[in-house]
Design goal:
It is an enzyme of class 3 (hydrolase). It contains four helices and 13 strands. The protein is α+β, with helices and mostly antiparallel strands. The strands form four sheets. It has a five-stranded antiparallel beta sheet with strand order 6-5-7-12-13. A three-stranded antiparallel beta sheet has the order 1-3-4. The protein has a three-stranded antiparallel beta sheet with strand order 2-10-9, with no helix packed on it.
Length: 255
């Protein structure tokens, strides 16, 4: 069931979204050669504490997971697509890093992700990240009252495929609100004009993921959480929480 949020609730989701935005900004700023992934997690955790917010990631355990997620920040490096668990690994020059973060504040949740390169970037990595961001922007542009979920999916998929990149099979965005994952699902590829019609008050986490090698397949790392590209090529991830409104899409996690 899809819950339509009131304008007051959307404003409250914006406050949660701004905690997410601050945490991602702080974590990206802290990311440098020699910094460990655990240190980035602690930076994000500090933002939560300062805001009086809690983490929907910490302790989360979906059906596929062998253990509850042990951190507040997902950190996926190079050929890791999503759900990377922060470890003692220290960042190296040229690492492509994707960070994903959520916050719950006042009973409402925000969720967002971004990708960047530490140190000296490779042009191919910058193109990959830029494509993920363009796909996100295209998906958001399609998130208007009267359109359908398929229009968002088609917009995202068109950008990713035109660049020659793969899209992780079966993974995409989701509804969001009182919980991190709500109906409806938001695929990263699909046919326009299909699926649920978008209405004022819907809130969606739109999140394209792209694989540089052009394949769609992946596998889980031994930790049971981190999803890795099958061909070892690099991946990028971009995400915003977006409210569908009569005035157009409102990005609640804007940085």
């Amino acid at each position: 069931m899809v819950e339509l949020k009131t304008d007051v609730s959307i404003d409250a989701m914006y406050e949660a979204g701004q905690v997410v935005a601050r945490a991602l900004t702080a974590a990206q700023k802290a990311a440098d050669v020699g910094v460990s992934l655990l240190e980035l997690d602690e930076v994000a955790h500090d933002v939560l504490r300062e805001a009086g917010a809690t983490s929907p990631f910490l302790g989360y355990r979906p059906t596929f997971a062998p253990t509850p997620f042990p951190a507040v920040l997902c950190v996926s490096v190079n050929d890791a697509i999503v759900h990377g668990i922060p470890t003692r690994y220290r960042l190296r020059d040229g690492d492509l890093v994707s960070i994903d973060f959520g916050a719950e504040l006042g009973g409402w949740v925000g969720d967002s992700a971004l990708s960047f390169v530490v140190g000296t970037p490779r042009p191919a990595d910058l193109r990959l990240i830029e494509t993920a961001e363009r796909a996100l922007a295209a998906g958001i542009e399609a998130a208007v009252v009267g359109n359908r979920i398929g229009d968002i999916a088609h917009a995202i998929g068109t950008v990713c495929r035109a660049a020659g990149y793969g899209i992780p099979d079966g993974f995409g965005g989701h509804g969001i609100g009182r919980r991190m994952h709500e109906d409806p699902g938001v695929p990263n590829e699909g046919r326009p004009g299909r699926g649920m019609r978008l209405r004022h008050g819907m809130a969606l986490a739109i999140e394209p993921m792209v694989i540089a090698g052009g394949i769609d397949t992946f596998h889980a790392a031994p930790d049971g959480w981190t999803l890795m590209t099958d061909d070892g090529s690099r991946a990028a991830h971009a995400e915003h929480t977006v409210a569908i409104t009569d005035a157009g899409p409102r990005i609640l996690t804007a940085r």
